[in-house]
Design brief:
Layout lengths: L1 H10 L6 H11 L7 H9 L7 H13 L3 E5 L5 E5 L5 E6 L5 E4 L2 H14 L7 E6 L9
Length: about 140
């Protein structure tokens, strides 16, 4: 998959630097969501000639080109996942920080509804909804 993403970037006119390749490889190592800091730590195992700003710029490029998605799962850091990870919703508990995944179909119609009512093209393929999980909700 890394080769496919690198080829897409090449076809779109981007130079594939050794740094970009290392960052993409590190980002694709994980099956789960990954932070820029985790990617930076992985890349540091191969080279010290790279800084965290380069990681963020590369991730921004991957998001802009639609190859990765970025979302906030709480805790102060954005997380990244390849677009191939598929559309889904994260339900994040404010209190205990537990994250559950929910089916994308729950918000699928919302995209067209927003477009019709507000003429806004919303990207709801990878979103987080914050609230309280069953264990943290007050008893009725």
């Amino acid at each position: 998959m890394n080769t496919i993403l690198l080829n897409i970037l090449r076809q779109r006119g981007y130079r594939i630097t050794p740094q970009r390749e290392l960052i993409l490889n590190a980002a694709m190592q994980s099956q789960a969501h990954v932070t820029a800091e985790t990617i930076f730590e992985r890349v540091q195992q191969h080279t010290q000639a790279l800084n965290i700003a380069t990681v963020y710029r590369t991730l921004d490029l991957l998001v802009t080109e639609g190859l990765f998605r970025r979302t906030d799962l709480g805790g102060g850091s954005m997380v990244y996942a390849p677009t191939e990870h598929g559309p889904h919703i994260h339900l994040v508990c404010y209190k205990c920080q537990q994250t559950l995944e929910a089916e994308y179909q729950l918000v699928a119609n919302l995209t067209s509804e927003i477009q019709q009512r507000h003429h806004f093209s919303a990207d709801l393929h990878h979103v987080s909804i914050f609230g309280l999980c069953a264990n943290c909700q007050p008893s009725n």
